[in-house]
Specification:
By secondary structure, this protein is of the alpha/beta class. The chain folds into two domains: about 240 residues, P-loop containing nucleotide triphosphate hydrolases (Rossmann fold), CATH 3.40.50; about 100 residues. Helix content is about 30%, strand content about 20%. It has ten helices and 13 strands. Helix 3 runs parallel beside helix 5. The chain is globular.
């Protein structure tokens, strides 16, 4: 998969051989969207549903945006709840309510990260997001539901869509799977009210579909020790000068993480694992890292390494920074949807 992904973004010529399959994938996706969207529009949950997703495979920054948006909604006086597929998790049954003490094996790394970052914000995982939505609404008192991914889960009713695009990689060669990285054609973005680009794009020109997109940026805050919880400010030199830092990742787009670490005054050694890799103690032991040298990973990877972490294990805590005007507009839109739905329910 990693070699195919590299070919997408290098725009390798041989991918044109897969173009006919890509067209078939695109046609089937359009048929599914038309059919399921018609069914979904006939359903109306008690609270508005906001989907945060993307049109490409791999990481774009959805998870930190979900966390930041949920925190902003709570600060505005609303009670958000979250649903997710729980990718690669194997819960004992579905739908499954995520708790702080849930494991990544049960609910998936991203869902566990979201739940722990938001504290008492209710969250339900289920491969069937519609079923997760029903469970969340019946078990908790929420004003609005955020769906972590699910843009292409067309059976899920939604009141608002938000799409996050990776600023560096954008759309690769612009083709749909398997010839390219897109789950849906770029034209799909015309129907999405809120577009965000995570990171600054390379080059001066953006595709026309992204001219109205707002910029997001990941702000590193602390390096947190997995074993002790100790926090070191990211800025400056948190470790001893001359130290080699081992950057370990199992995420969809690790370059953004490595770029952040490269701003520190250390030699950084990369250790790449596949996206959502189920880390074990043996994985890290095989790297033969000097225990005096820090191992730094993303928080999403860290939730899978807590049980065997040594004193030299750290994760990089980050916050998603949204432009003030864009955040204000988004909150106003969601608050309007909440008030509108309340009025509809009270009138029934």
């Amino acid at each position: 998969m990693r070699s195919l992904e590299k070919a997408w973004y290098r725009k390798a010529g041989w991918l044109l051989l897969l173009w006919p399959v890509s067209l078939l994938f695109q046609l089937l996706a359009s048929i599914r969207r038309f059919y399921h969207s018609a069914v979904a529009r006939s359903q109306r949950p008690a609270v508005p549903v906001v989907v945060v997703g993307n049109i490409s495979v791999g990481g774009t920054g959805k998870t930190p945006l979900i966390i930041g948006l949920a925190k902003a909604l709570r600060k505005a006086g609303l009670r958000p709840g979250i649903i997710s597929r729980g990718y690669l998790g194997k819960a004992p049954d579905y739908p499954f309510i995520v708790e702080k003490n849930s494991s990544a094996e049960e609910v998936g790394d991203e869902a566990l990260l979201i739940a722990r970052s938001l504290g008492d914000c209710p969250m339900v995982v289920d491969p069937d997001r519609l079923r997760a939505l029903e469970k969340l609404c019946s078990s908790f008192h929420c004003d609005v539901v955020l769906s972590d991914d699910g843009l292409q889960h067309y059976a899920l009713p939604r009141d608002l869509e938000i799409v996050v695009i990776d600023g560096k990689r954008l759309f690769g060669n612009g083709m749909c799977l398997p010839a390219g990285p897109l789950r849906e054609p770029v034209s799909r973005l015309r129907s999405v009210p809120y577009l965000f680009i995570n990171g600054e794009p390379e080059g001066d020109e953006l595709p026309p579909e992204l001219e109205r997109a707002e910029r997001l940026s990941l702000q590193p805050t602390f390096l947190v020790n997995l074993q002790t919880g100790e926090k070191k400010p990211f800025k400056g030199a948190p470790f001893n000068i001359g130290t080699t830092v081992h950057a370990v990742t199992g995420i969809g787009n690790p370059d953004r993480f490595f770029t952040l670490l490269s701003t520190l005054p250390y030699q950084v050694r990369r250790h790449d694992f596949p996206d959502h890799h189920p880390f074990s103690a043996a994985d890290l032991e095989a790297l033969a890292i000097d225990p005096r040298q820090p191992i730094v990973m993303t928080q999403k990877d860290a939730v899978k390494c807590e049980q065997f972490a040594g004193r030299n294990y750290w994760y990089l805590a980050v916050e998603m920074k949204l432009p003030d005007a864009a955040l204000a507009s988004l909150l106003e839109t969601i608050q309007g949807l909440v008030e509108q739905r309340r009025g509809t329910v009270e009138a029934v």
